[in-house]
Amino acid sequence: MEWLDDCRKRVLFVGCVFALVLLGGTNANADFTFGEPVNLGPPINTEADEVLGCISPDGLEFYFMDAYALHSGGLGGKDIWVAGRPSVSEPWGESVNLGAPINTEHDDELPCLSADGLTLYFSSTRPGGHGESDLYMSTRITKDDPWQAPVNFGTPVNSPEKDDYPFVSTDGLTLYFTSQRAGGYGSGDTWVATRATTEDPWGDPVNPGPEINSPTYDSLPCSSLDGLTLFFQSMRSGGYGETDLWVATRPSSSEPWDAPVNLGPPINTRSADAVLRISEDGFMCYFSSSRPGGEGEFDVFQAPIVPIVDFDGDGYAGYSDLLILVECWGADEPMCDVGPTPLGDNMVDEADLKVLADNWGPADYPYNLWLARQPKPLNESISDVEKAVALGWVRGLNAAQHDVYVGMDPCEVKNADVSDTTGIYRGRQEDTQYTLPQELSPDQMLYWRIDEFNTNGTLTKGNLWSFFVADYLIVDDMESPEAIWYRWLDGWYDPNNGSVVWGDFSTFHSDGQAMSIYYDNSEVLTSQVERTWEPPQDWTRRSVERLILWLYGGPGNAAEPLYVVLQDSAGNEAVVKHPDPAALTVDSWQEWSMPLTDFTGVNPAAIAKMSIVIGDPAGSQAGGSGTVYIDDISLHRPPGQ
Prior knowledge:
Elements: H1 2-7, E1 32-34, E2 38-39, E3 50-55, E4 61-66, E5 80-84, E6 96-97, E7 108-113, E8 119-124, E9 134-139, E10 151-152, E11 163-168, E12 174-179, E13 189-194, E14 218-223, E15 229-234, E16 244-249, E17 261-262, E18 273-278, E19 284-289, E20 299-307, E21 316-317, H2 319-327, H3 350-358, E22 361-362, E23 373-376, E24 381-384, E25 390-394, E26 399-407, H4 410-415, E27 425-429, E28 433-435, E29 444-454, E30 459-460, E31 465-470, E32 473-476, H5 484-487, E33 499-504, E34 514-520, E35 526-537, E36 546-552, E37 562-568, E38 573-577, E39 590-595, E40 607-615, E41 625-636
Parallel strand pairs: 24-31
Antiparallel strand pairs: 1-20, 2-20, 3-4, 4-5, 5-6, 7-8, 8-9, 9-10, 11-12, 12-13, 14-15, 15-16, 16-17, 18-19, 19-20, 21-22, 23-25, 25-28, 26-27, 26-29, 29-30, 29-31, 32-41, 33-34, 34-41, 35-40, 36-39, 36-41, 37-38, 37-40
């Protein structure tokens, strides 16, 4: 789908506290969290792939895109569909294809409605545009009337490149969209155009800069009703999965955006999460996700947005929180700015008092928001002796400093406090990273804990975390939240390479994810994926001498030859072939151990590229297809060392 194409330049488009202020943003509107996402289920979600477009302001129309053109009744390409309901308290009815003139045999994607519900904005690859994909708009006289013939936005909004995924602000004066035009920061950026009135033409699009846009792909923007909060999808570092949802805020519409913050779980997962939209009342968000358990590969989910009104963290929204709110009265204080919606309005006033009163009583949040969380290395994971020395975490809500505890005994680490003199207590610090002063011994468990010293002087005791220190060096354990296709280049854009890679969460050797390689040599000789390193890696560290990877095939796979190719910084290459010609047909995990000395002529102290090749590059005819899983690529010392 277009999404997929864009997020690799190919986007797949593309609980947990959100506490903007304390997670790194400044001048945020409010602190809030998300409830557990719920799959909308049939009839919205089907075994096809539904990608959210928008929900009408009155909540009675649900527009979405059929991402893979799998819905019966479509016009040939990706189409826009709509479902309706009589009232917001009733279920959605069956979806209907908008038909012509909105949909064509080409791709018509990701609609957005105006505030009055009478203008539909979308992108399309239909002929007659200015580039590969253009923005269009269609109007209707009333909500009961059909949509009129779409009109191209024209220049300067549309360019000779791809322009997609429009979102128009509530007042109709700001247009956000995704573009691959020149002047961006990545393979696709979020751009903004404005106009003085709804009768005026759109001005020249402006790139909001490196805070919103990254060297990857940043798209599918959506602003809050007041225009001070911007949600978008990104594949930038620091995420949880293939593509994540992020948010940025600003004090006013005339000021720049602050640094964006990842929405975190449960909104973001190790799958692809994208296209977030906020309900008119601000208390519900809708988004698309490829997380497991859906009706199809992509489904639409909803999750409540919950204001955090337990300002002092005592587990109860009561008189002490009321006193804090009164002290902030009339000020732009993010902690107490929880009304009229959870996103706030940059002012503590009667609206925030009403929200506190409506939530008076025990604070019921998905989990303890004041705890440190998201440990790195991951809890109960495997880390090698080099990576294990760097610990990191995300601060809890209202944390000012952090007490660090590290040791080898779980009970001692769990029970230690600041009076400890055995070395478990490592001190109090402001940074959310801690580097162990000494290298760890391999083949052991390390236990650690972070207690949060809060701004009000209280202490929140942290959970006990652990990880195993492996006696080998990790080349790639496939557990990075960064999309695998960003590390391993496949044949997506190469007609002579039949490979496509994904992260797979159901078939893995350890920890939870493997690299899935689909190979199709029916029209090419080989399918290959490759990873490069800059600077080159030293594969002689710690006296390692063997390269090991794990693979899992299947009986339905074509029995193609399997190779690993190493290249050093000087361009020297060496190839090792798997000894079993039927290795790709074995449906169990197999260890493939290769002595580094087998890669003759390559300098192991300067490895610049590793390739996994399926098929015979010297063959004279095409081969077959299949899927193989690769996991836990590592470097090992001789046994006994």
